[in-house]
Backbone:
């Protein structure tokens, strides 16, 4: 199916309807990955913002440093240490959540401790690993590279996206209400059904770990947390209701992913795709803040 | 015996602190039960224990028809993040419908939302963000959410605290309507005048259930609302399932 799509795109290039860079298969793969990653991160990002878990997703993203190093040490391919990355991110997130529910330490302080630990451990292990593999391969995993996307990655992304879509259609309201008012959701339920708030918390953690792994090729492990946060934070500034908030987050996230993949190639810039995507998203956020301020000044 | 919530040696100990000494209590269906007592006496903790939100010792047994398996809960003044783009309509829709909030609402769903908001006088504030609502409006929204459930059992934790007089009156009217419909209301409340006039059962809480009974039994013939005699009373038991919240 992916080959047929690439042939179709090549035909469009031949007819002059698409730029020449699309004649290379890796560009098509990267673009499909961006089109799948953007909505996935956007959808999850809205809940990250509602649940005030921005710092949490950032910590899990940084935990990826250690996951990658462990994967390479255990003999996984340096370009794709998926099993260790996913396992470590998941264990890291579950441990953080478990400690949170059993201590009186404020959540931001707790995440700070875990974040520092993850970076320190990751840095120590990566220095050791760097002696064994080419450090540029690690850069690709940490900050994203469109050259490394394969059809298998696209399949994994498509499966995770499909699962996320089904879960969202069925449980979006329950997840939203459990985030807004967990006690009320526990007692009253949502939509006439009992809301399993704790289960949603753990499912959310699982999804963040899954998405971190799925987005690693395009955005890079370290910057996934940023893309979970920035599009939703931007959309929040310009939305009047939750539907607008959700749709605009998806559009911003997808737009930044696609532009972050295409623009460096179009302008031949030596920028990793993850960095380009996050830079674009950050610029959009700052522009939105400035425009909002100008609007306020004009009204005043 | 009719439907009821039975507390059997229910107590609450956190660390070295005894919040509630073990005690027995029966809350019968179709009545207004008011938990009262000084600040920090453990009223809210007792209410939260009944709803399963706090761990407790002893048993809390719900002897209730299936319809009330999901009770309504009105907490103290609800906090909402003022900057989140969640409107009154969004909140209510996501609370009571299963159709995902990011899909377009159907006409029937919109009509249902409008009718619920009319019941609590919020029909003109459908597009207002939660953070922009006054305290009274937030409480009314929680009532709208609970009304949608068509439940027979309500837990309320000082639902009028922090509200201005108009808002208090509106909430009081809603509570009295529920009482008139013979819903079962379990409510933490400080206003002795309200307790004396409307309660079917008064439960005096002070680090445990001190005593319970009708307002006359608790307050006696005296009109001095702060003069609560220290004697234990047995709760009368008369209720039938079919009459509850009909």
Residues:
């Amino acid at each position: 199916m992916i080959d047929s799509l690439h042939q179709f795109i090549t035909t469009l290039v031949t007819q002059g309807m698409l730029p020449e860079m699309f004649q290379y298969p890796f560009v098509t793969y990267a673009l499909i990955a961006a089109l799948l990653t953007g909505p996935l991160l956007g959808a999850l990002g809205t809940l990250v913002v509602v649940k005030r878990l921005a710092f949490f997703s950032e910590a899990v993203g940084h935990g990826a440093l250690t996951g990658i190093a462990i994967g390479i040490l255990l003999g996984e391919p340096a370009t794709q240490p998926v099993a260790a990355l996913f396992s470590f991110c998941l264990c890291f997130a579950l441990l953080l959540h478990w400690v949170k529910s059993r201590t009186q330490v404020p959540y931001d302080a707790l995440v700070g401790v875990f974040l520092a630990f993850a970076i320190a451990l990751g840095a120590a292990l990566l220095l050791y690993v760097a002696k064994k593999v080419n450090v540029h391969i690690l850069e690709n995993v940490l900050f994203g590279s469109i050259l490394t996307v394969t059809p298998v990655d696209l399949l994994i992304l498509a499966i995770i996206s499909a699962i996320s879509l089904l879960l969202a259609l069925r449980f979006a309201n329950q997840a939203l209400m459990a985030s807004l008012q967990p006690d009320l959701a526990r007692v009253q339920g949502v939509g006439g059904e009992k809301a399993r708030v704790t289960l949603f918390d753990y499912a959310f953690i699982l999804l963040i770990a899954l998405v971190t792994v799925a987005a690693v090729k395009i955005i890079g492990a370290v910057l996934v947390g940023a893309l979970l946060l920035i599009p939703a934070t931007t959309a929040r500034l310009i939305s009047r209701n939750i539907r607008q908030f959700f749709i605009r987050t998806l559009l911003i996230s997808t737009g930044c992913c696609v532009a972050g993949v295409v623009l460096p190639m179009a302008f031949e810039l030596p920028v990793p795709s993850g960095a380009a995507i996050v830079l674009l998203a950050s610029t959009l956020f700052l522009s939105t803040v400035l425009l909002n301020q100008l609007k306020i000044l004009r009204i005043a | 015996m009719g439907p009821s919530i039975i507390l059997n040696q229910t107590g609450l100990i956190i660390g070295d602190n005894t919040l509630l000494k073990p005690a027995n209590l029966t809350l019968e269906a179709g009545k207004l039960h008011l938990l009262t007592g000084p600040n920090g006496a453990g009223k809210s903790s007792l209410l939260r224990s009944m709803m399963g939100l706090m761990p407790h010792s002893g048993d809390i047994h719900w002897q209730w028809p299936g319809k009330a398996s999901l009770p309504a809960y009105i907490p103290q003044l609800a906090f909402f993040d003022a900057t989140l783009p969640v409107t009154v309509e969004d909140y209510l829709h996501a609370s009571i419908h299963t159709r995902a909030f990011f899909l377009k609402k159907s006409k029937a769903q919109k009509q249902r939302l409008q009718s619920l908001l009319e019941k609590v006088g919020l029909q003109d504030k459908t597009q207002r963000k939660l953070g922009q609502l006054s305290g009274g409006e937030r409480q009314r929204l929680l009532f709208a959410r609970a009304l949608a459930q068509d439940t027979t059992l309500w837990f309320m934790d000082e639902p009028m605290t922090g509200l201005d007089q108009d808002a208090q009156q509106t909430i009081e009217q809603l509570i009295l309507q529920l009482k008139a419909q013979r819903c079962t209301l379990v409510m933490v409340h400080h206003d002795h005048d309200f307790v004396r006039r409307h309660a079917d059962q008064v439960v005096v809480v002070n680090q445990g259930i001190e005593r319970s009974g009708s307002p006359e039994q608790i307050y006696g013939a005296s009109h001095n609302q702060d003069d609560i005699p220290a004697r234990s009373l047995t709760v009368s038991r008369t209720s039938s399932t079919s009459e509850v919240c009909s």
About this structure: Residues 165-180 of chain B form the longest helix (16 residues). The mean pLDDT of chain B is 83. Chain B touches chain A at residues 51-53, 70-73, 75, 78, 80-81, 83-87, 89-91, 93-104, 127, 129, 142, 145-146, 149, 155 (CB under 8 Å). The two ends of chain B are 19 Å apart (CA to CA).
